[in-house]
Specification:
Structural class: mainly alpha
Mean pLDDT: 79
Helix content: 40-55%
Radius of gyration: 19 Å
Length: 135
């Protein structure tokens, strides 16, 4: 048998293997992607998953700088992936993701982030307090 011929694709990425669960954007300077992972939440982590899911929904209106918002989304998605994955949540990985999320919110909560109003500052402070309580 002969090997299949390779064809060049110039309109986007080419996958030569499984790519389920991935998200891609190309030729776009202004893209925001969200991904839901509706897997079962590990027992005991339901409140954390709910809180982080709520935070993800509130981030676009929180007035964070784009870079900070993207960092917060990435950290929140890491938390959700950890508590909904096929394996039991690994405490170190979960703690690092939560610390990353709290780290993005800390300048907002303390008023160090420029252009953030009092309501957003209180929201970030409460989010950090709740995340800490659930760790």
């Amino acid at each position: 048998m002969s090997d299949p011929q390779r064809r060049e694709a110039h309109g986007g990425p080419v996958f030569h293997g499984p790519a389920s669960g991935n998200q891609f954007a190309w030729n776009n300077d202004q893209v925001t992607q969200n991904q839901r992972n509706d897997g079962a939440v590990a027992p005991g982590f339901e409140a954390l998953a709910r809180l982080v899911g709520d935070l993800l929904g509130q981030l676009p209106g929180a007035g964070l700088a784009e870079r900070d918002r993207l960092d917060a989304v990435a950290a929140a998605q890491e938390v959700l992936a950890e508590v909904t994955g096929p394996e039991a949540p690994e405490p170190g990985r979960l703690r690092r993701a939560l610390n990353g999320l709290k780290g993005v919110l800390a300048p907002v909560a303390t008023g160090a982030a420029a252009g953030v109003g009092a309501a957003t500052q209180e929201w970030a402070h409460e989010a950090i307090r709740n995340l800490t309580a659930l760790m």
